[in-house]
Amino acid sequence: MTNNLENSNYTNEVCNVLNDLRKKIPLVQCITNYVTINDCANILLSYGASPAMCEAYDEVFDFAKISSALYINVGTLTKEQEEAAVLASISAKVNNTPVVLDPVACAAIPRKNSVIKRILELGRVDVIKGNIGEIKFLAGEASEVRGVDSLDNGEGALDSCMLLAKKYNCVVAATGKEDYITDGSRSAIIKNGTDMLTKVTGAGCMVGALCAATAGAYEDKFISTVCAILSMNLSGEEAYEMCKVPGSFRVKLIDCIYTLSTEKIMKEGNILWQ
To answer: Residues of the signal sequence (predicted)?
Structure first.
């Protein structure tokens, strides 16, 4: 187990994700919640991707064909979004487009689970990214949640991620005070981050969008997911150093995503690899 990214065999791969993303400018189709849709679009632009908030039922199948990745967030799920998300995931399966699924509030609202189940059964999912409470719930474990927020302390989170990753043959990431990512064989625990990310609406949605961006630019979805979450956490740390209040922090977060460098990733990334 290694606790410093600079000394890890994965160093170059994680940095390559960011380099490849900024060269390829992946087109990321987003079917996401209305509370944070603008933040997701702006953080994707700042990261080096091209966002398309395409969710109309009559358009999503064709748009998924030309997209580099599809991000599905069920946070404010309307009936049209529900059908559009399922249809887009089917198109992604047919057209080999990577999909990131964000099961927002699945532990609090039962209806969301029927939609998630349809996506998993009919479509394609490469990455499931949720908070610890959501991931534990999907794994059938006891979890503590309050609406869209996880109150879980993280105990057993990696085991839940492993269970889901093996069940659905995908990468699973659980975010919290520490972030857990696994593909069922390789695992990483990211120890970077700041509590200020919990004071800004949509930080989880934004990191889900970043996961889709990296998935659209890099073949290894485990490494790409690590890069996306690490990018968010490092940028959050830097933004917090500049300002200690939520409103200004939110603006600086997007600025810091824009200026994030591979040198910063190498120097400041703090990850336990397993």
So the answer is: none
